[in-house]
Please model this.
Amino acid sequence: MAFCDFLICPLCAAPLVREGASLFCTGARKHCYDIASSGYVNLLPPGKGKNARTGDDAGMIAARTAFLTGGYYDVISDAVAEIAATNIPKREGRIALLDAGSGEGYHTCRIARGIASATGRHIDALGVDASKKGAAAGAKLAARTAADGADISFAAGNIFSLPVKDHSLDVMLSLFAPIPAAEAMRTLKDDGILVVTASAARHLWEMRCLLYDEVREGNAEAATPEGFVLKEKREVRALVHIPDNGTLMHLFTMTPFYYRTPESGRARLASTESLDVSVMADLYVFTKRKDF
Ligand SMILES: C[S@@+](CC[C@H](N)C(=O)[O-])C[C@H]1O[C@@H](n2cnc3c(N)ncnc32)[C@H](O)[C@@H]1O
Model:
């Protein structure tokens, strides 16, 4: 597994280089980060272990893996790859991409490969998530599905304090995750793009109607992060057939509704055999404001 050359030491910010099964920093202290057998590297700063607890737990990661590998959300990652590929600054050479809050890496891998094939350029992609289990799952998936044109690696890390060089990224992705605006500003090149994917107001509407007696629409518009300007917005709207209750439960488990659904709603979901659900996401491409 290759590790991209935009990584820096989370302790002293010196560049990281790979030697065997470890990444060493080129600073005076030569800090060392071992690559786990699953292929990910833990770059959560020592002593800041509480970061790890912000990551999704094993149950959520497993549910998301089971659901996403069924292809039910591919319509989203296909659209993200397409909008990113058309907005990436046009130049020769490799594309540097970071997926901030990459979960178990399914979208990271699909989007990175989609961009590589659409642009014909090699891509170095890194998924960063606070969850070590998520990063491990991503690394295993990237190894299983390795293909020419894309080097995809995963690190456990804090997206609000990224172990990444200043002005080194062409693309930062944020899918259904907190948006690290200040870190995007620091790590993106001047003409780099921040691609945000957020749930639209009626995302998963039919499932929400089962879960709650009274359903309210979610937030309609993502705020433009400070220092950025909106370049393009695209809507993904699809009706997706969920064929069985097991898959429906996986979808439920990977959403925030899992934590705030009354017993009556859970019971209705448990007795539902199949469901057509609206998959509705809004994609935003932001670029840096020239005057910021
Ligand atoms: C809803 S999940 C989305 C995962 C993935 N992007 C997807 O669309 O399938 C949000 C992810 O953000 C991660 N996350 C939240 N806060 C984080 C932080 N401070 N640093 C790194 N990851 C974080 C969580 O661990 C979780 O995997």
Observations:
- The radius of gyration is 19 Å.
- DSSP finds eight helices and eleven strands in the chain.
- The pocket of S-adenosylmethionine is lined by residues 54-56, 64, 101-103, 107, 129-131, 134, 158-160, 175-178 (CB under 6 Å).
- The mean pLDDT is 93.
